[in-house]
Amino acid sequence: MEQVVSCYRHPDRETGVSCARCGRPICPDCMVSASVGFQCPSCLNEGRQTAPPPPRTVAGAVLAKRPPLVTIALILANVALFAAVHSNAALVQQLALNPAEIAQGQYYRLITAVFLHQALAHIGMNMLSLWWIGPAVENALGRARYLALYLVAGLGGSALSFLLLPANEYGLGASGAIFGLLGALFVLVRRVGGDLRQVVIVIVLNLVLTFSISGIDWRAHVGGLITGAAIAYGMVHAPRARRALVQWGTCAGMLVVVLVVITVGVVVR
């Protein structure tokens, strides 16, 4: 005669099923589907507690293939503003970086200029560069850290432009932030011991073009490159025990440096 047993968690319920891990009888309410048979809730919780943590990148991001949502959102924001500019040309004058206007208190131009493009070729090249470089940096840093680096690097490029650009000239474009991503990519590849030659070649070629072609704001490129590299260095070298503190502290510290540059710009203007 088959012996009737009761669920160890619900003694009033008879069952013929046992946990595949501990062998204790479990009723349908306690059955959790596993790769082989069923497990009870207790064994499932124990398995979760003893499971190894997911692998992470040198910056602490979970190592997994995820869609580059932040990069896509940044591209869409740039394209949306580009479309708005073409339907209202006056927006370029209102949103572009202009030292004289910023010195009078229009500080919003320091960030709106980072998302502003006027020519189709300009936004096309910048968005292609963002799509080529952004996903790798986003996956390595994680979405929040990546977005912070992009924005602060873009602001760093704007700050140096504000400080050094002739008063009545205009600056615009995502190039400063993208140079920040190039600086971050260099730091990341160096940290993991990868081959730096391709990254160095890309950076050098872009700097040569920056200083060779008239009309390109080299100040934004250099400011973004330095800011992005500095932030990335703090992120990938942060000690694991204090990773978040050091990483966000680095972002905050570089933001303070950028604000100091802006303040100096206001004074000298």
UniProtKB/TrEMBL annotation:
Primary location group: membrane
Presence of the UniProt keyword Membrane in the record: yes
Keywords for the protein's UniProt record, in alphabetical order: Hydrolase, Membrane, Protease, Transmembrane, Transmembrane helix
Membrane topology annotation: Multi-pass membrane protein
SUPFAM superfamilies listed in its UniProt record: Rhomboid-like
InterPro entries from the UniProt entry: Peptidase_S54_rhomboid_dom, Rhomboid-like_sf, Rhomboid_protease_S54
Protein known as: Rhomboid family intramembrane serine protease
Organism annotation: Streptantibioticus silvisoli
